[in-house]
Specification:
2 copies of one chain form a homodimer. Chain A has 12 helices and 10 strands. The first copy, chain A, has about 350 residues and is α+β, with helices and mostly antiparallel strands. The structure holds a DNA duplex (30 and 30 nucleotides).
Chain lengths: ~350, ~350
DNA sequence: TGTTAGCACTCCCAAACGACGAGTGCTAAT
DNA sequence: ATTAGCACTCGTCGTTTGGGAGTGCTAACA
């Protein structure tokens, strides 16, 4: 898709080396290539080409008498221009189909099941960022008194996501009073996106009711604060165990930093929300991931939508030697599928 | 605490062996013991005693010319009669104290922070079973229409836990109608424990309103079903990475089954809810855990309460060679502390 | 000029080997 | 009953060794 920097024979060799290494996890040598993929070239020729590719940074050697493996730059070229798009295997579609029947209407369960499925199909750890709050449409607010000074604020959106926050008040408020406030807010706010709600509408509302009731105003303030602090959506993670199947992590010391990273929601969040110029699908290789622990990993993510608006991200984490072709297809499909599922009931 | 089956010198040796092995992770030999803990016994005597202890099943040898390590039976004896109860170190108390200030009133966040803290202090993976639904007291129900045929049912309890379920109806119901139903249910049910609610009260309510409104009855039915299927509380897990510090898991193949287990909420649930004759604190060693993958692990759990009733469990998972004395103290303390925190605002 | 065969060389890996040392059980002396 | 002494076992660790895969270079060839 990008400008081609390599002549077609070099491309061919880079592709073959990458494909083979992805499959075998072993450095691949000229002899192997000549034998396995008969390209009509002798090992010596291939050696020369590989030496060139190494010099220009697409391949590297673990040690002098080993075969070549792709460098980060090599993977990048592979991903941009060489990789073959795959389609889903029949049995994978089957797995998805059979999941559908059990797919829950509970948004939380649905998302959980979705990452699990993605991990099962790709055989890599899978991550997901739940629907963002901001583009969601306000559906309902409810104030529930837990005791005299603590009030539970529940906000329901059209995505089915429930946000909750406990607020503390100085003076006890009666149930009836809270109901009145809830009703008033509901009437005013139904159908507004939380996005707008945060800025304009709430302000407007505030001035409007200013004179009438000091307490309502306090409630509005609190609602505003609630929505601000609850910015970050939940992170889902599953299939961590899959990464242990790959030889690059057979030594525990290689795996440990990664495990540490996956236990920090903060870091997963950053990985999933890294800016991208692509539309939807994004591939980050090695150091392109801004994360110390993931220098030898790649991440493939896709955004999913709800009613035409991007609301979240789903992705897969694996070694740089990852089956890009396959994972891209699966992640893309799942994101589309999820979008459909989320948009359909509304 | 239990009947003493061993004479005091054997006990002493078993204790020393276990303590040393817990600390060093190396099989411990007679010479080491004689030198390190001067018991006034020669290596030869100790050897004889150890041979006896092995014969009666408290110790075992990894191979013939290695030192001894405790068997499962040995650990059991150690835990029941030999182990010294420890108290929390000043800096551990400090960690807890400094957490308090940030402790959230959101029940979910609070629980999450608690397992994290437990994992940090013990340096083992920590698990937690969130508050059970059944003993909780009904606080509020709200029916929110998501669209014509789907209604979101929200149930709030005094624990601050929010249960939600989407139900599908055959006929569209208006917002007003739903509000009326919500109100009616709220009036009827406030203060009832979900436990009772499930059986008697709902039935009573059903017959009472039977004649009046066919739809309400349907709602009650659905509420009933909701509470039944939402039986299982959420599982929290953190600090998995800690287990990798221990040499018994330095080979990935040893760790893999454990990782698999920890990704199955089902299995964690079973571990946390294993029946116990103890009051509160429970220690399960090796095969006592009914879980294939955890044969070489131990679990220490404690229950926590809310207003005097046991509502959940918190625990720690580690190798059988675990620092029992320390972990018991910490888990016990945290459970008590959590109970206090959960019971105080109400 | 691009391709290929041949060859010397490098270096990883796995197996074999051999001390070393920690620890044991047994026996005999105290 | 305890202990010193001793022969024996066996895992660990460092060294050695051979084999093999792969390379770069050179020279011949189309």
């Amino acid at each position: 898709m990008k400008r081609r920097e390599l002549d077609s024979r070099k491309e061919l060799i880079l592709k073959v080396v990458t494909d083979d290494y992805i499959e075998s996890a072993e450095p691949v040598g000229s002899r192997t290539i000549a034998r396995k993929y008969n390209l009509g070239l002798s090992p010596a020729t291939i050696r020369n080409e590989m030496a060139d590719l190494e010099e220009s940074g697409y391949l590297k050697q673990p040690h002098v008498s080993a075969g070549r493996i792709p460098s980060q730059q090599g993977y990048r070229y592979y991903v941009d221009s060489l990789m073959e798009q795959q389609t889903l295997a029949a049995e994978e579609l089957q797995m998805i189909k059979s999941y559908i029947e059990n797919w829950s209407k509970e948004i939380d369960t649905l998302l959980q099941q979705t990452v699990r499925l993605l991990a099962q199909i790709t055989r890599y750890p899978s991550i997901m960022l739940g629907p963002k709050l901001r583009p969601a449409v306000f559906k309902h607010i409810q104030l529930v008194p837990l005791n005299d000074y603590n009030i539970l604020v529940l906000v329901v959106t059209n995505t089915g996501v429930i946000e909750n926050k406990i607020i503390t008040v100085d003076l006890p408020v009666s149930q009836g009073e809270l109901d009145r406030i809830s009703n008033q807010l509901n009437r005013k706010l139904r159908g507004v996106t939380l996005d707008n709600l945060k800025s304009s509408v709430l302000d407007e509302l505030k001035t409007e009711i200013e004179a009438r009731n000091g307490f309502i105003q306090q409630a509005v303030n609190l609602l505003q604060k609630t929505l601000e602090t609850k910015e970050r959506a939940r992170i889902y993670l599953d299939g961590v165990i899959n990464i242990l199947e790959h030889p690059e992590f057979k030594e525990i010391e290689k795996f440990k930093p990664l495990m540490g990273m996956m236990e920090e929601e903060e870091k997963l969040y950053r990985i999933l929300t890294a800016p991208s110029d692509e539309q939807g699908l994004r591939i980050s290789i090695g150091e392109e991931i801004q994360e110390e622990a993931a220098q030898e990993c790649s991440v493939i993510t896709a955004t999913y939508e709800m009613g035409g608006r991007v609301v979240g991200t789903i992705g897969v984490l694996g070694p740089t030697r990852m089956d890009y072709g396959h994972v891209v297809a699966v992640v893309g499909f799942m994101a589309k599928y999820l979008s459909k599922l989320l948009s359909q009931p509304e």
